[in-house]
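forwarding from the other thread:

> can someone predict this with S-adenosyl-L-homocysteine?

sure thing
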Amino acid sequence: MDYFPVFLDLKNRRCLLVGGGDVATRKGRLLAKAGAILRVVAPDVSSELRELVNTTGGELLLREYQKDDLQNCVLAIAATDIESLNETISADAQALHLPVNVVDSPALCTYITPAIIDRSPLVIAVSSGGEAPVLARLVRAKLETLIPASYGRLAQIASQWRDRIKARFADGDSRRKFWEKILQGPAAELMMNGQEEAANQLISDELDADQAQLVQGEVYLVGGGPGDPELLTLRALRLMQQADVVLYDRLVSDGVMELVRRDAERIYVGKRRAEHAMQQENINQLLVDLARQGKRVLRLKGGDPFIFGRGGEEIELLAQNNIPFQVVPGITAASGCAAYAGIPLTHRDYAQSVRFVTGHLKSDDTNLSWPELANPTQTLVFYMGLVGLKDICESLIAHGRSPQTPVALIEKGTTQEQRVLVSDLSAIADVVATKDVHAPTLFIVGEVVKLHESLKWFNPAI
Ligand code: SAH
Protein backbone atom coordinates (compact mmCIF):
# COMPACT_ATOMS: atom_id res chain seq x y z
CA MET A 1 0.00 0.00 0.00
CA ASP A 2 1.64 3.25 -1.13
CA TYR A 3 -0.72 5.61 0.69
CA PHE A 4 -2.35 5.54 4.12
CA PRO A 5 -6.06 6.25 3.75
CA VAL A 6 -7.58 8.76 6.20
CA PHE A 7 -10.68 10.95 6.46
CA LEU A 8 -9.86 14.43 7.75
CA ASP A 9 -12.14 16.42 10.03
CA LEU A 10 -12.00 19.94 8.55
CA LYS A 11 -15.03 21.40 10.29
CA ASN A 12 -14.35 25.05 11.23
CA ARG A 13 -10.73 24.63 10.26
CA ARG A 14 -9.00 26.97 7.89
CA CYS A 15 -7.75 25.59 4.57
CA LEU A 16 -5.67 27.39 1.99
CA LEU A 17 -6.76 27.12 -1.61
CA VAL A 18 -4.54 28.83 -4.17
CA GLY A 19 -6.18 29.34 -7.55
CA GLY A 20 -9.50 30.64 -8.82
CA GLY A 21 -10.36 28.63 -11.94
CA ASP A 22 -12.52 25.57 -12.57
CA VAL A 23 -10.28 23.10 -10.76
CA ALA A 24 -9.94 25.37 -7.73
CA THR A 25 -13.71 25.83 -7.69
CA ARG A 26 -14.24 22.07 -7.64
CA LYS A 27 -11.82 21.73 -4.74
CA GLY A 28 -13.48 24.64 -2.96
CA ARG A 29 -16.85 22.96 -3.29
CA LEU A 30 -15.55 19.80 -1.60
CA LEU A 31 -13.82 21.71 1.18
CA ALA A 32 -16.99 23.69 1.84
CA LYS A 33 -19.04 20.48 1.95
CA ALA A 34 -16.69 19.18 4.64
CA GLY A 35 -17.28 22.34 6.69
CA ALA A 36 -13.87 23.94 6.16
CA ILE A 37 -13.27 27.68 6.33
CA LEU A 38 -11.82 28.68 2.97
CA ARG A 39 -8.90 31.02 2.47
CA VAL A 40 -8.77 31.50 -1.28
CA VAL A 41 -5.80 33.27 -2.85
CA ALA A 42 -5.80 34.25 -6.55
CA PRO A 43 -5.79 37.46 -8.60
CA ASP A 44 -8.95 36.30 -10.31
CA VAL A 45 -11.64 34.03 -8.86
CA SER A 46 -14.76 32.40 -10.33
CA SER A 47 -18.10 33.70 -9.11
CA GLU A 48 -19.03 30.33 -7.62
CA LEU A 49 -15.83 30.17 -5.59
CA ARG A 50 -16.42 33.74 -4.43
CA GLU A 51 -19.86 32.66 -3.23
CA LEU A 52 -18.42 29.60 -1.46
CA VAL A 53 -15.97 31.81 0.42
CA ASN A 54 -18.83 34.03 1.57
CA THR A 55 -21.08 31.20 2.69
CA THR A 56 -18.32 29.47 4.68
CA GLY A 57 -17.27 32.69 6.40
CA GLY A 58 -13.87 32.48 4.74
CA GLU A 59 -11.40 34.98 3.28
CA LEU A 60 -10.88 35.98 -0.32
CA LEU A 61 -7.44 37.43 -1.11
CA LEU A 62 -7.42 38.77 -4.65
CA ARG A 63 -3.67 38.83 -5.21
CA GLU A 64 -0.62 36.59 -5.73
CA TYR A 65 0.19 33.91 -3.16
CA GLN A 66 2.50 34.79 -0.23
CA LYS A 67 4.16 32.47 2.21
CA ASP A 68 2.19 33.96 5.11
CA ASP A 69 -1.06 32.72 3.55
CA LEU A 70 -0.32 29.34 5.12
CA GLN A 71 -0.51 30.77 8.63
CA ASN A 72 -3.24 29.16 10.78
CA CYS A 73 -4.16 26.70 8.03
CA VAL A 74 -4.39 22.95 8.55
CA LEU A 75 -4.23 21.99 4.90
CA ALA A 76 -3.16 23.47 1.55
CA ILE A 77 -4.28 22.90 -2.01
CA ALA A 78 -2.54 24.44 -5.00
CA ALA A 79 -4.74 24.54 -8.09
CA THR A 80 -2.87 26.95 -10.33
CA ASP A 81 -1.37 26.23 -13.75
CA ILE A 82 1.92 27.96 -12.94
CA GLU A 83 4.39 25.18 -12.24
CA SER A 84 6.94 27.26 -10.32
CA LEU A 85 4.21 28.68 -8.08
CA ASN A 86 2.89 25.18 -7.35
CA GLU A 87 6.42 24.09 -6.42
CA THR A 88 6.82 27.04 -4.05
CA ILE A 89 3.50 26.37 -2.30
CA SER A 90 4.38 22.70 -1.91
CA ALA A 91 7.80 23.50 -0.45
CA ASP A 92 6.43 26.18 1.92
CA ALA A 93 3.67 23.89 3.19
CA GLN A 94 6.03 20.99 3.70
CA ALA A 95 8.41 23.22 5.65
CA LEU A 96 5.51 23.82 8.05
CA HIS A 97 4.57 20.10 8.03
CA LEU A 98 1.20 20.91 6.53
CA PRO A 99 -0.47 18.37 4.28
CA VAL A 100 -0.36 19.72 0.74
CA ASN A 101 -1.94 18.68 -2.53
CA VAL A 102 -0.95 20.09 -5.90
CA VAL A 103 -3.57 19.17 -8.45
CA ASP A 104 -2.22 16.76 -11.10
CA SER A 105 1.35 16.82 -9.73
CA PRO A 106 1.74 13.76 -7.51
CA ALA A 107 5.43 14.49 -6.96
CA LEU A 108 4.55 17.77 -5.21
CA CYS A 109 1.86 16.25 -2.98
CA THR A 110 2.07 14.85 0.52
CA TYR A 111 -1.44 13.48 0.14
CA ILE A 112 -3.67 12.64 -2.80
CA THR A 113 -7.43 12.91 -3.05
CA PRO A 114 -9.52 9.86 -3.90
CA ALA A 115 -12.52 9.53 -6.17
CA ILE A 116 -15.50 9.54 -3.82
CA ILE A 117 -19.02 8.21 -3.60
CA ASP A 118 -20.84 10.56 -1.28
CA ARG A 119 -23.77 9.15 0.67
CA SER A 120 -22.99 11.25 3.70
CA PRO A 121 -22.44 10.30 6.39
CA LEU A 122 -21.41 7.24 4.39
CA VAL A 123 -18.49 8.18 2.16
CA ILE A 124 -16.55 5.73 0.02
CA ALA A 125 -13.13 6.71 -1.25
CA VAL A 126 -11.39 4.98 -4.15
CA SER A 127 -7.77 5.51 -5.04
CA SER A 128 -5.28 3.98 -7.45
CA GLY A 129 -2.45 5.73 -5.64
CA GLY A 130 -2.26 8.19 -8.53
CA GLU A 131 -1.20 5.37 -10.88
CA ALA A 132 -4.45 4.90 -12.80
CA PRO A 133 -6.97 7.65 -12.00
CA VAL A 134 -9.24 6.61 -14.87
CA LEU A 135 -9.49 3.10 -13.44
CA ALA A 136 -10.33 4.57 -10.02
CA ARG A 137 -13.07 6.60 -11.66
CA LEU A 138 -14.46 3.52 -13.42
CA VAL A 139 -14.55 1.70 -10.09
CA ARG A 140 -16.30 4.68 -8.62
CA ALA A 141 -18.91 4.63 -11.38
CA LYS A 142 -19.58 0.95 -10.66
CA LEU A 143 -19.97 1.61 -6.96
CA GLU A 144 -22.29 4.53 -7.63
CA THR A 145 -24.69 2.16 -9.34
CA LEU A 146 -24.33 -0.53 -6.67
CA ILE A 147 -24.93 1.59 -3.61
CA PRO A 148 -28.42 2.99 -3.29
CA ALA A 149 -28.64 6.75 -2.83
CA SER A 150 -30.81 6.09 0.22
CA TYR A 151 -27.85 4.59 2.10
CA GLY A 152 -27.12 8.12 3.30
CA ARG A 153 -30.48 8.21 5.04
CA LEU A 154 -29.88 4.74 6.42
CA ALA A 155 -26.61 5.84 7.95
CA GLN A 156 -28.20 8.94 9.45
CA ILE A 157 -30.92 6.99 11.19
CA ALA A 158 -28.43 4.38 12.33
CA SER A 159 -26.47 7.11 14.04
CA GLN A 160 -29.58 8.16 15.99
CA TRP A 161 -29.84 4.65 17.43
CA ARG A 162 -26.19 4.17 18.13
CA ASP A 163 -26.11 5.05 21.82
CA ARG A 164 -29.25 3.11 22.74
CA ILE A 165 -28.04 -0.02 20.94
CA LYS A 166 -24.63 0.30 22.52
CA ALA A 167 -26.22 0.49 25.96
CA ARG A 168 -28.34 -2.58 25.28
CA PHE A 169 -25.53 -4.80 23.95
CA ALA A 170 -22.37 -4.43 25.99
CA ASP A 171 -20.66 -7.20 24.08
CA GLY A 172 -19.30 -6.11 20.70
CA ASP A 173 -20.15 -9.38 18.97
CA SER A 174 -23.85 -9.36 19.76
CA ARG A 175 -23.98 -5.65 19.02
CA ARG A 176 -22.58 -6.23 15.56
CA LYS A 177 -25.06 -9.03 14.95
CA PHE A 178 -27.92 -6.79 15.98
CA TRP A 179 -26.76 -4.07 13.61
CA GLU A 180 -26.42 -6.52 10.76
CA LYS A 181 -29.89 -7.81 11.41
CA ILE A 182 -31.28 -4.29 11.36
CA LEU A 183 -29.30 -3.05 8.37
CA GLN A 184 -30.07 -6.09 6.22
CA GLY A 185 -33.66 -6.55 7.30
CA PRO A 186 -37.11 -5.01 6.92
CA ALA A 187 -36.28 -2.03 9.16
CA ALA A 188 -33.64 -0.95 6.66
CA GLU A 189 -36.09 -1.31 3.78
CA LEU A 190 -38.56 0.93 5.64
CA MET A 191 -35.89 3.53 6.36
CA MET A 192 -34.79 3.64 2.75
CA ASN A 193 -38.38 4.05 1.63
CA GLY A 194 -38.75 7.07 3.86
CA GLN A 195 -41.03 5.34 6.40
CA GLU A 196 -38.97 6.53 9.29
CA GLU A 197 -41.59 6.17 11.99
CA ALA A 198 -42.39 2.55 11.15
CA ALA A 199 -38.68 1.77 10.93
CA ASN A 200 -38.00 3.25 14.33
CA GLN A 201 -40.88 1.27 15.81
CA LEU A 202 -39.50 -1.93 14.36
CA ILE A 203 -36.01 -1.27 15.71
CA SER A 204 -37.48 -0.52 19.09
CA ASP A 205 -39.42 -3.83 19.02
CA GLU A 206 -36.30 -5.72 18.01
CA LEU A 207 -34.40 -4.15 20.87
CA ASP A 208 -37.02 -5.37 23.33
CA ALA A 209 -37.09 -8.86 21.86
CA ASP A 210 -35.47 -11.78 23.57
CA GLN A 211 -31.73 -11.56 23.15
CA ALA A 212 -31.44 -15.33 23.07
CA GLN A 213 -32.57 -15.52 19.47
CA LEU A 214 -29.49 -13.60 18.44
CA VAL A 215 -26.98 -16.11 19.69
CA GLN A 216 -28.10 -18.84 17.30
CA GLY A 217 -25.12 -19.70 15.13
CA GLU A 218 -25.19 -21.13 11.63
CA VAL A 219 -22.92 -22.71 9.05
CA TYR A 220 -22.40 -21.71 5.44
CA LEU A 221 -20.91 -24.46 3.31
CA VAL A 222 -19.58 -22.44 0.42
CA GLY A 223 -17.91 -23.41 -2.84
CA GLY A 224 -14.99 -21.04 -3.45
CA GLY A 225 -14.42 -22.10 -7.08
CA PRO A 226 -11.18 -23.33 -8.63
CA GLY A 227 -8.96 -20.30 -7.94
CA ASP A 228 -9.87 -17.13 -9.79
CA PRO A 229 -11.80 -15.02 -7.21
CA GLU A 230 -13.97 -13.57 -9.97
CA LEU A 231 -15.61 -16.97 -10.29
CA LEU A 232 -17.25 -16.66 -6.86
CA THR A 233 -21.02 -16.36 -6.74
CA LEU A 234 -22.61 -13.23 -5.29
CA ARG A 235 -24.06 -15.27 -2.45
CA ALA A 236 -20.66 -16.79 -1.64
CA LEU A 237 -19.19 -13.31 -1.45
CA ARG A 238 -21.97 -11.98 0.76
CA LEU A 239 -21.62 -14.86 3.24
CA MET A 240 -17.83 -14.59 3.18
CA GLN A 241 -18.26 -10.96 4.19
CA GLN A 242 -20.46 -11.71 7.17
CA ALA A 243 -18.92 -14.85 8.69
CA ASP A 244 -17.25 -14.69 12.12
CA VAL A 245 -14.95 -17.62 11.56
CA VAL A 246 -13.74 -19.45 8.46
CA LEU A 247 -12.49 -23.02 8.09
CA TYR A 248 -10.61 -23.39 4.83
CA ASP A 249 -8.31 -25.86 3.16
CA ARG A 250 -5.46 -25.92 0.74
CA LEU A 251 -7.50 -25.67 -2.43
CA VAL A 252 -8.93 -22.27 -1.53
CA SER A 253 -6.80 -19.72 -3.38
CA ASP A 254 -5.17 -16.70 -1.73
CA GLY A 255 -7.24 -14.42 -3.96
CA VAL A 256 -10.45 -15.93 -2.62
CA MET A 257 -9.23 -15.77 1.00
CA GLU A 258 -8.57 -12.05 0.48
CA LEU A 259 -12.31 -11.54 0.17
CA VAL A 260 -13.20 -13.08 3.54
CA ARG A 261 -14.14 -10.52 6.17
CA ARG A 262 -10.88 -9.05 7.44
CA ASP A 263 -11.47 -9.65 11.12
CA ALA A 264 -12.92 -13.15 10.78
CA GLU A 265 -11.02 -15.83 12.67
CA ARG A 266 -9.24 -18.17 10.20
CA ILE A 267 -8.76 -21.87 10.84
CA TYR A 268 -6.67 -23.89 8.38
CA VAL A 269 -7.84 -27.46 8.23
CA GLY A 270 -5.33 -28.69 5.64
CA LYS A 271 -6.13 -31.61 3.34
CA ARG A 272 -3.34 -32.34 1.01
CA ARG A 273 -2.97 -35.89 -0.23
CA ALA A 274 -2.05 -37.97 2.80
CA GLU A 275 -1.47 -34.85 4.91
CA HIS A 276 -4.42 -33.73 6.94
CA ALA A 277 -4.02 -30.76 9.26
CA MET A 278 -7.25 -31.96 10.83
CA GLN A 279 -9.13 -35.24 10.53
CA GLN A 280 -12.48 -35.10 8.76
CA GLU A 281 -14.41 -36.11 11.90
CA ASN A 282 -12.77 -33.28 13.83
CA ILE A 283 -13.72 -30.77 11.14
CA ASN A 284 -17.32 -31.96 11.26
CA GLN A 285 -17.38 -31.62 15.05
CA LEU A 286 -15.69 -28.21 15.01
CA LEU A 287 -18.41 -26.85 12.72
CA VAL A 288 -21.02 -27.97 15.24
CA ASP A 289 -19.11 -26.57 18.24
CA LEU A 290 -18.50 -23.15 16.68
CA ALA A 291 -22.13 -22.78 15.60
CA ARG A 292 -23.23 -23.70 19.13
CA GLN A 293 -21.16 -20.77 20.40
CA GLY A 294 -23.42 -18.53 18.31
CA LYS A 295 -20.90 -17.99 15.52
CA ARG A 296 -21.61 -17.65 11.83
CA VAL A 297 -19.27 -20.26 10.49
CA LEU A 298 -18.00 -20.26 6.93
CA ARG A 299 -16.80 -23.62 5.68
CA LEU A 300 -15.02 -22.56 2.52
CA LYS A 301 -14.05 -25.25 0.04
CA GLY A 302 -12.32 -25.29 -3.34
CA GLY A 303 -14.59 -25.75 -6.33
CA ASP A 304 -18.05 -27.06 -5.49
CA PRO A 305 -18.65 -28.51 -2.03
CA PHE A 306 -20.71 -31.42 -3.40
CA ILE A 307 -18.21 -32.55 -6.03
CA PHE A 308 -15.42 -34.59 -4.46
CA GLY A 309 -15.65 -32.16 -1.58
CA ARG A 310 -17.04 -34.25 1.28
CA GLY A 311 -19.60 -31.49 1.75
CA GLY A 312 -22.30 -34.10 2.31
CA GLU A 313 -20.44 -35.56 5.29
CA GLU A 314 -19.94 -32.17 6.86
CA ILE A 315 -23.56 -31.14 6.83
CA GLU A 316 -24.80 -34.53 7.98
CA LEU A 317 -23.65 -33.88 11.53
CA LEU A 318 -25.07 -30.35 11.40
CA ALA A 319 -28.45 -31.72 10.38
CA GLN A 320 -28.35 -34.28 13.19
CA ASN A 321 -27.66 -31.48 15.67
CA ASN A 322 -30.31 -29.12 14.30
CA ILE A 323 -27.78 -26.46 13.39
CA PRO A 324 -29.06 -24.19 10.60
CA PHE A 325 -26.90 -24.34 7.49
CA GLN A 326 -26.95 -23.42 3.85
CA VAL A 327 -24.97 -24.77 0.93
CA VAL A 328 -23.69 -22.48 -1.81
CA PRO A 329 -22.54 -24.17 -5.01
CA GLY A 330 -19.26 -23.18 -6.58
CA ILE A 331 -17.69 -23.56 -9.97
CA THR A 332 -16.13 -26.98 -9.95
CA ALA A 333 -12.58 -27.49 -11.21
CA ALA A 334 -13.83 -29.26 -14.35
CA SER A 335 -15.94 -26.28 -15.49
CA GLY A 336 -13.35 -23.69 -14.51
CA CYS A 337 -10.34 -25.43 -16.03
CA ALA A 338 -12.19 -26.44 -19.19
CA ALA A 339 -13.44 -22.91 -19.82
CA TYR A 340 -10.08 -21.27 -19.14
CA ALA A 341 -8.27 -23.81 -21.33
CA GLY A 342 -10.69 -23.53 -24.25
CA ILE A 343 -11.84 -27.16 -24.03
CA PRO A 344 -15.63 -27.56 -24.21
CA LEU A 345 -16.51 -30.64 -22.15
CA THR A 346 -19.24 -31.67 -24.56
CA HIS A 347 -19.49 -30.87 -28.25
CA ARG A 348 -21.98 -32.13 -30.81
CA ASP A 349 -19.19 -33.47 -33.02
CA TYR A 350 -16.98 -35.07 -30.36
CA ALA A 351 -18.63 -35.89 -27.06
CA GLN A 352 -22.23 -36.50 -26.06
CA SER A 353 -21.56 -36.90 -22.38
CA VAL A 354 -19.02 -36.00 -19.74
CA ARG A 355 -18.07 -37.87 -16.61
CA PHE A 356 -16.33 -36.60 -13.49
CA VAL A 357 -14.15 -39.34 -12.04
CA THR A 358 -11.90 -39.60 -9.01
CA GLY A 359 -8.34 -40.50 -9.91
CA HIS A 360 -7.47 -41.26 -6.32
CA LEU A 361 -7.10 -44.93 -7.16
CA LYS A 362 -5.50 -45.97 -3.92
CA SER A 363 -8.39 -44.93 -1.74
CA ASP A 364 -10.38 -47.85 -0.33
CA ASP A 365 -13.66 -46.75 -1.82
CA THR A 366 -12.46 -46.33 -5.40
CA ASN A 367 -13.85 -48.94 -7.68
CA LEU A 368 -13.82 -47.60 -11.21
CA SER A 369 -15.73 -49.35 -13.90
CA TRP A 370 -13.12 -49.16 -16.67
CA PRO A 371 -15.21 -50.67 -19.48
CA GLU A 372 -17.75 -47.85 -19.04
CA LEU A 373 -14.98 -45.27 -19.31
CA ALA A 374 -13.79 -46.60 -22.65
CA ASN A 375 -16.66 -45.06 -24.67
CA PRO A 376 -14.92 -42.79 -27.24
CA THR A 377 -17.76 -40.25 -27.36
CA GLN A 378 -17.55 -39.55 -23.64
CA THR A 379 -15.27 -36.92 -22.12
CA LEU A 380 -13.62 -37.98 -18.87
CA VAL A 381 -12.45 -35.52 -16.25
CA PHE A 382 -10.23 -36.99 -13.57
CA TYR A 383 -9.93 -35.15 -10.27
CA MET A 384 -6.97 -36.01 -8.02
CA GLY A 385 -5.41 -37.88 -10.92
CA LEU A 386 -1.78 -36.73 -10.92
CA VAL A 387 -0.27 -39.50 -8.82
CA GLY A 388 -2.18 -42.24 -10.58
CA LEU A 389 -1.84 -40.73 -14.07
CA LYS A 390 0.19 -43.58 -15.55
CA ASP A 391 -2.20 -46.22 -14.18
CA ILE A 392 -5.22 -44.32 -15.44
CA CYS A 393 -3.85 -44.09 -18.98
CA GLU A 394 -2.79 -47.74 -19.07
CA SER A 395 -6.16 -48.94 -17.78
CA LEU A 396 -8.09 -46.84 -20.29
CA ILE A 397 -5.98 -48.21 -23.19
CA ALA A 398 -6.26 -51.74 -21.85
CA HIS A 399 -10.05 -51.41 -21.85
CA GLY A 400 -10.22 -50.19 -25.42
CA ARG A 401 -9.77 -46.45 -25.48
CA SER A 402 -7.47 -45.47 -28.35
CA PRO A 403 -3.86 -44.68 -27.33
CA GLN A 404 -4.12 -41.62 -29.61
CA THR A 405 -7.04 -40.15 -27.67
CA PRO A 406 -6.15 -36.49 -27.04
CA VAL A 407 -5.67 -35.54 -23.38
CA ALA A 408 -4.89 -32.39 -21.41
CA LEU A 409 -3.42 -31.95 -17.96
CA ILE A 410 -4.36 -28.57 -16.52
CA GLU A 411 -2.22 -27.32 -13.69
CA LYS A 412 -3.52 -24.65 -11.27
CA GLY A 413 -6.45 -23.96 -13.56
CA THR A 414 -8.02 -20.47 -13.69
CA THR A 415 -5.14 -18.93 -11.73
CA GLN A 416 -2.36 -16.71 -13.09
CA GLU A 417 -0.13 -19.78 -13.05
CA GLN A 418 -2.38 -21.98 -15.16
CA ARG A 419 -0.50 -24.36 -17.46
CA VAL A 420 -2.03 -26.70 -20.02
CA LEU A 421 -0.10 -29.77 -21.17
CA VAL A 422 -1.61 -31.45 -24.23
CA SER A 423 -0.66 -34.90 -25.43
CA ASP A 424 -2.34 -38.28 -25.97
CA LEU A 425 -3.16 -41.21 -23.73
CA SER A 426 -0.01 -43.13 -24.64
CA ALA A 427 2.45 -40.28 -24.11
CA ILE A 428 1.11 -37.91 -21.42
CA ALA A 429 2.75 -39.73 -18.49
CA ASP A 430 6.19 -39.26 -20.07
CA VAL A 431 5.48 -35.59 -20.87
CA VAL A 432 4.42 -34.91 -17.30
CA ALA A 433 7.54 -36.61 -15.94
CA THR A 434 9.72 -33.96 -17.62
CA LYS A 435 7.67 -30.88 -16.69
CA ASP A 436 7.88 -30.46 -12.91
CA VAL A 437 4.11 -30.41 -12.48
CA HIS A 438 2.49 -29.33 -9.20
CA ALA A 439 -0.96 -29.95 -7.74
CA PRO A 440 -3.74 -29.20 -8.16
CA THR A 441 -4.10 -30.65 -11.62
CA LEU A 442 -7.07 -31.84 -13.60
CA PHE A 443 -6.85 -34.49 -16.30
CA ILE A 444 -9.22 -34.27 -19.28
CA VAL A 445 -9.50 -37.19 -21.70
CA GLY A 446 -11.39 -37.12 -24.99
CA GLU A 447 -11.66 -35.81 -28.53
CA VAL A 448 -12.79 -32.39 -27.26
CA VAL A 449 -9.17 -31.69 -26.25
CA LYS A 450 -8.45 -31.19 -29.99
CA LEU A 451 -10.33 -27.90 -29.74
CA HIS A 452 -7.85 -26.43 -27.26
CA GLU A 453 -5.46 -25.33 -30.01
CA SER A 454 -8.08 -23.31 -31.88
CA LEU A 455 -10.15 -22.04 -28.96
CA LYS A 456 -7.54 -21.14 -26.37
CA TRP A 457 -6.74 -17.78 -27.94
CA PHE A 458 -10.28 -16.61 -27.63
CA ASN A 459 -10.13 -16.76 -23.89
CA PRO A 460 -8.65 -13.51 -22.59
CA ALA A 461 -7.83 -15.12 -19.25
CA ILE A 462 -5.10 -17.32 -20.72
N1 SAH B 1 -14.60 -29.79 -4.73
C1 SAH B 1 -13.56 -29.56 -5.67
C2 SAH B 1 -12.71 -30.80 -5.92
C3 SAH B 1 -11.96 -31.26 -4.72
S1 SAH B 1 -10.96 -32.66 -5.09
C4 SAH B 1 -14.16 -29.04 -6.98
O1 SAH B 1 -15.37 -29.08 -7.17
O2 SAH B 1 -13.40 -28.58 -7.83
C5 SAH B 1 -9.40 -31.92 -5.41
C6 SAH B 1 -9.04 -32.02 -6.88
O3 SAH B 1 -9.72 -31.01 -7.62
C7 SAH B 1 -7.59 -31.76 -7.17
O4 SAH B 1 -6.81 -32.93 -6.93
C8 SAH B 1 -7.63 -31.42 -8.63
O5 SAH B 1 -7.75 -32.57 -9.41
C9 SAH B 1 -8.93 -30.66 -8.74
N2 SAH B 1 -8.71 -29.19 -8.73
C10 SAH B 1 -9.22 -28.32 -7.84
N3 SAH B 1 -8.86 -27.06 -8.16
C11 SAH B 1 -8.11 -27.15 -9.28
C12 SAH B 1 -7.45 -26.22 -10.11
N4 SAH B 1 -7.47 -24.89 -9.84
N5 SAH B 1 -6.77 -26.64 -11.19
C13 SAH B 1 -6.73 -27.97 -11.48
N6 SAH B 1 -7.33 -28.90 -10.73
C14 SAH B 1 -8.03 -28.51 -9.64
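The CA atoms of residues 362 and 388 lie 8 Å apart. thats all i got for now
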